[in-house]
Amino acid sequence: MAYLRGGDDNILVEYGERVLDLGLRMRVHALAQALAATALPGIVDVTPGVRSLHIHFDPDVLAQYRLLGVLTELEEQLPATGELVVPSRTIRLPLSFDDPSIAEAIDRYRNGIRDTAPWLPSNTEFIRRINGLDSVEEVRRTVFDAEYLVLGLGDVYLGAPLAVPLDPRHRLVTTKYNPARTWTPSDAVGIGGKYLCVYGMESPGGYQLIGRTVPIWSSYRQNPPFEAGIPWLFRFFDRIVWEPVTAEQLLEYRAAARAGRFDAEVSDGTFALADHQRMLRDNAESIAAFESRQSAAFDAEKRAWRAAGEFDRTVAAPPVADQRDALLADLPADATVVTAPMVGNVWRVDITPGTKLNAGDPVAVLEAMKLELPVPSPATGTVLRVFAAPGAAVEPGTPLAVIGVD
């Protein structure tokens, strides 16, 4: 492990190499539990990661050297990693695979951000290809056969699970969208890298989408399966099992959940690392075969991207000052130049020369940090010139369009 200093009031404990290792995650959990049990004054917040533990403390109450000493002492007292056992509930939830809401998110991305990308027009077909599977049905079967272990909470949104299949033969691997989506339906289920997440609300996002489930946040009145005082559904080391349902059935379940009438099947249990390691040893040959096929498919996909110029994509740069002067030459005296208010990329332009606009109508929609920002027309008039083009980079003052007063 490594103990890294973060200013005067933070310590980051890191375990092992930067690889997915459930043993490291369990050791992080064991250290966090042991630290909590000390009730050490001055601890402000403790945040576990997959292979790290971040500790925020008050240096006026707890000296950094003292906290470091406590951490090293606790480390010596922890059980051997192979002996660790944690509580692990199994939660069965409905999943509408390739739900219509997913198609809507993909269509909005294709129409407004990128019309061609390796993951278009189907995320599940992209997942099939990049993992070397024979059909989308095999993707579907892999998802529903898996048990997803929740390693973290807060991926993409507060309380959202960061989960990974326990069996490596179920670990589908993907890349993320580039650029990201500006809209994802609430409770969409996606895969990024080896991890699965659930989007707790409508939001931007970049994971490849495979389906949709019920709300993972409680309504105003908390009912089972939510625990009193905890608005999110999952705990660390929960096991998520997906149950296939139709899109129509999911709508019924979602309505019941919003009304507080949906109660998922939850069963208590434990997760022992020794049992998991035994499973890995017993199935080492078939796991290696799966990972070899997956790696070959991923490499083939990357070669195809390189040949298609995916790695050479560029975004048009905003015009420099002398270019702007040329763009704005010979304008009527009463014309209004609409400019970008911020750094970003042009997401959508729905106007052409001759378009009639009222004050407040959108001239263009920009995208920055996965968020959409409409740029309104400051005046009523007719569009004389349009400079903005989807995908172009802009900065404050970049001309987007010229509006002539009628």
In short:
Strands 6, 7, 8, 10, 11, 13, 14 and 15 form an eight-stranded mixed beta sheet that branches.
Strand and helix layout:
Elements: E1 2-6, E2 10-14, H1 22-38, E3 43-48, E4 52-57, H2 64-77, E5 85-87, E6 90-97, H3 100-112, H4 123-130, H5 136-145, E7 148-153, E8 161-165, E9 181-184, E10 188-192, E11 195-198, E12 203-205, E13 208-212, E14 239-244, H6 247-258, E15 265-267, E16 270-272, H7 273-282, H8 284-308, H9 321-327, E17 336-339, E18 344-348, E19 356-357, E20 362-368, E21 371-376, E22 381-386, E23 393-394, E24 399-404
Parallel strand pairs: 6-14
Antiparallel strand pairs: 1-2, 2-4, 3-4, 5-16, 6-13, 6-15, 7-8, 7-14, 9-12, 10-11, 10-13, 17-24, 18-20, 18-23, 19-22, 20-21, 22-24
Report the structural category.
alpha+beta
Q: How many helical stretches?
A: 9
Can you tell me the CATH class of the largest domain? Mainly Beta
CA gyration radius, whole angstroms:
26 Å
Distance between the termini: 70 Å
What's the main sheet like? 8 strands, mixed
Architecture (CATH level 2) name of the largest domain: Beta Barrel
Coarse morphology: globular
Name the poorly predicted regions: none
Strand content: 25-35%
Fraction of helical residues: 25-40%
CATH topology of the largest domain: Cyclophilin
